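Data availability (excerpt). The following record was deposited with the supplementary files.
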Amino acid sequence: MKYVLDSNVGLKWLLTEADSDKAIRIRDDFQRQVHDLIAPDVFPVEVAHSLTKAERQGRITPTEGQSHFRSMIAILPALHPYLPLLPRAYELSSRARIGVYDCLYVALIEREGCELLTAGERLQRSLPTHRIVLLSSMP
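Predicted structure:
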């Protein structure tokens, strides 16, 4: 199966959160080439931002953050340039009143004809006609 991978799922590969076990199964399947995972090229920036935020919140140490960062860089989905996706992402963001970053992922599923795998229920609720799969619904 081909999925656009939301950064909030990629973060669950690194930090223990709700449904991290499911995210790790997806990652392991990706490594075994069961799934194709793609993302806009903002994916590593968003994950890095979340890691440094977790450091600031005291959820992880800076040393753990650096280790998680290196782990993330070692296994990335196939990255697609965000700039060609931006006009459609802007349109979706304006219409659905959700963040442009989230809409980059949605624009990519539209272009690639696949599903978005996310942990964000609000995104699925905001764009009910799109192929958005919640991580929590995965086996």
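Summary of structural features: Helices lie at 7-12, 20-31, 43-56, 62-74, 86-96, 100-112, 121-126.
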